[in-house]
Specification:
The chain has 636 residues and is α+β, with helices and mostly antiparallel strands. Among the domains are: 132 residues, Succinate dehydrogenase/fumarate reductase flavoprotein, catalytic domain (Flavocytochrome C3, Chain A, domain 1, Alpha-Beta Complex); 126 residues, Methane Monooxygenase Hydroxylase, Chain G, domain 1, CATH 1.20.58.100. Helices cover 37% and strands 14% of the residues. It contains 17 helices and 19 strands. The strands form 5 sheets. It has a 5-stranded parallel beta sheet with strand order 5-2-1-9-17. It has a 5-stranded antiparallel beta sheet with strand order 11-15-14-12-13. A 4-stranded antiparallel beta sheet has the order 16-10-18-19. Helix 4 packs across helix 5 and helix 14 runs parallel beside helix 16. The longest helix is centred in the C-terminal third of the chain and has 25 residues.
């Protein structure tokens, strides 16, 4: 398959403006003739639904939660980037573009990244107009703080609950359209397949999570904003309901899956405390602005942090990366935490932890200032651990957080299934091999508010769409396939729980395709995952019926995770280099940094579904770097 990214010609700072002008438009009076399906109500899906409905389209919006406000975007705490340069510290659209390309270790598409940086300045204005309560300086101007991978302060925030406040802004815009009748909202509804007719996405098959009823919904275009696939690892910072089923079922219908091995490990998470845990809790990266990360200088030092003097502490990020210190990008911070713990200098009961210490900041700024900046995060940490971070350092350790891979999309955010657009974390497009902190909210809102309204109009205006109804053979086939899969899961009637299989898969993924990978481990995973998947289909016990059934929901999602996990390991094995969050132990510099191979791997790996039991097919989109020349990343 020849991949056409549809990247516009011309200078990088003019590409998006020129492209928008050339896109075909739908007459305002004709917009109400078109029906659009949006899956997901996070920042990408919620913003898209609200904006498309505001333009006049008829929108059906689906979410698995009981309310759009519960979408996982709510958990992005630290902030949202924008190149406003309010601090007058040297920021610009080009610098945000540069930092993002560099932070992604030169594995992102330049045109998409520059568009994201360009749109960032509009996002803040949009959110302020919606009433998002961003933090402000004493004089009333919006405040900014720093985040990893940047030497300027460009992150706008609302204490430690930025995602929640931004989501409420998108939610109120969405619910206004629901009240006006332009959006029909389907809560507690899961997408289980895409309906493809004449090669185009024309609808979805859903299952009600209340009564188990399956339905087919048809439209002129489908938009997926269903989030990432981090829960393939079982333990992650994602909500338990976060899953990959929407994008994975689309993949099996013809959408290529790009860079699946690019997963992000967040350095600032509360460490695992026992086998009973079902998820991990994120502590915002914003804490690294004022918290200093350290471990004991000597291996096996079991003294309390208060008993360890400065001379016996190793502030290892400040020592190794003096220019960026504790604000190095997430992949660098995570690998270094693992390294010092592997040396036997980790802290806490398991030895898998490092200190995040606010003692100096409290002494310098006062407890009140720290409480104003991070109070809700400190409260959350104390509720979970029983320790007061105002008195003792936090303990943190890296954890699975975000997925840079996702469905392949062109510059218009359309997948390889015409008429199916993919937004936010569900696509691969903007972050390369490592996402900089505070850029997820930026991408979700850029895609939903400012990109999809233009590009979906071009598709609708330039595509002949035949009328389809529920009697079409492709509709019947899709619905039948969903029902047969559900019945097959119910019929296994084995002895093991869904969670036991998911936990075992997660351990394989973390061990062999987690913070560090090597050929031996990945090869082993590619043998053990198919064997475990086979046992799943013979031994899993779902119980109950096809009605209200939480185990049936989970079983379908875990079945998808088995197939996705295998693809992730295959992608990681083929990519014989280290870049960003993909760290192959065989490919590193003498100092332990990631070592890219630009001669062989400057491409997007886009995988096609090969069929049950068949190997996937690899397609490559070459990446060109005309603006930011690839070099060895250095944060020293």
């Amino acid at each position: 398959m020849q991949l056409d990214a549809r990247i516009p010609e011309g200078p990088i700072d003019k590409k998006w403006d020129n492209h928008r002008f050339r896109l075909k438009l739908v007459n305002p009076a004709n917009k109400r003739k078109y029906n659009i399906i949006v899956v997901g109500t996070g920042l990408a899906g919620g913003a898209a639904s609200a904006t498309l409905a505001e333009l006049g389209y008829n929108v059906k919006t689906f979410c698995i939660q009981d309310s759009p406000r519960r979408a996982h975007s709510i958990a992005a705490q630290g902030g949202i980037n924008a190149a406003k340069n309010y601090q007058n510290d040297g920021d610009s659209i080009y610098r945000l573009f540069y930092d993002t390309v560099k932070g992604g270790d030169y594995r992102a598409r330049e045109a998409n990244v520059h568009r994201l940086a360009q749109i960032s300045v509009n996002i803040i204005d949009q959110c302020v107009a919606q009433g998002v309560p961003f933090a402000r300086e004493y004089g009333g101007v919006l405040a900014n703080r720093s985040f990893g991978g940047a030497q300027v302060s460009r992150t706008f925030y609302a204490r430690g609950q930025t995602g929640q406040q931004l989501l409420l802004g998108a939610y109120q815009a969405l619910m206004r359209q629901v009240a006006l009748g332009k959006v029909k909202l389907y809560p507690r509804t899961e997408m289980l397949d895409v309906v493809v007719i004449d090669g185009k996405a024309r609808g979805i098959v859903t299952r009600s999570l209340v009564d188990g009823k399956t339905e087919v919904h048809l439209a002129d275009a489908v938009v997926l904003g269903s989030g990432g696939y981090g829960n393939v690892f079982f333990l992650s910072t994602n909500a338990k309901g976060s899953n990959a089923t929407a994008i994975w079922r689309a993949h099996k219908k013809g959408a290529l899956f790009a860079n699946p091995c690019y997963t992000q490990i967040h350095p600032t998470c509360i460490p695992v405390s026992g086998d009973y845990q079902s998820k991990l809790t994120l502590m915002s990266e914003s804490l690294r602005n004022d918290g200093r990360i350290w471990v004991p200088l000597n291996k096996g030092d079991k003294r309390t942090p208060a008993e360890i003097p400065e001379s016996d502490r190793d502030y290892y990020l400040e020592r190794r990366y003096p220019s960026f210190g504790n604000l190095v990008p997430r992949d660098v911070a995570s690998r270094n935490a693992k390294m010092v713990c592997d040396e036997g200098r980790g802290v806490g009961p398991t030895g898998l932890g490092v200190y995040l210490d606010f003692g100096d900041a409290i002494q310098r700024l006062g407890k009140r200032t720290i409480a104003e900046r991070y109070g809700n995060l400190f409260d959350m940490y104390e509720r979970i651990t029983g320790e007061d971070p105002y008195q003792v350092p936090m303990r943190i350790y890296p954890a699975i957080h975000y997925t840079m891979g996702g469905l392949w999309v062109d510059y218009n955010l359309m997948s390889t299934i015409p008429g199916m657009f993919v937004l936010g974390e569900a696509n691969f497009s903007d972050h390369g091999a490592n996402r900089l902190g505070a850029s997820a909210l930026m991408q979700g809102l850029a895609d939903g508010y400012f990109i999809i309204p233009y590009t979906i109009g071009d598709y609708l205006a330039s595509t002949k769409l035949e009328k389809v109804d529920q009697k079409h053979a492709a509709v019947k086939d899709a619905e039948r396939g969903v029902k047969e899969r559900l019945e097959r899961l119910l019929a296994v009637n084995g002895t093991r729980t869904v969670d036991s299989f998911h936990r075992e898969l997660g351990k394989i993924m973390w061990e062999h395709c987690g913070m560090a990978r090597n050929a031996k481990g990945l090869t082993e995973a590619l043998e053990t995952i198919p064997a475990l998947r086979e046992r799943f289909w013979k031994e899993v016990r779902v119980g109950g019926t096809g009605d209200l059934n939480l185990e049936l929901e989970k079983a379908g999602r875990v079945a998808d995770f088995f197939e996705l996990g295998e693809l992730m390991c295959r992608d990681a094995l083929v990519r014989e280099e280290s870049c960003g969050g993909h760290f192959r132990e065989e490919y590193q510099t003498p100092e332990g940094e990631a070592q890219r191979d630009d001669e062989r791997f400057t491409y997007v790996a886009a995988w096609g579904w090969g069929g049950e039991g068949q190997k996937p097919e690899l397609h490559k989109e070459p990446l060109e770097f005309k603006e930011v020349k690839p070099s060895q990343r250095s944060y020293k």
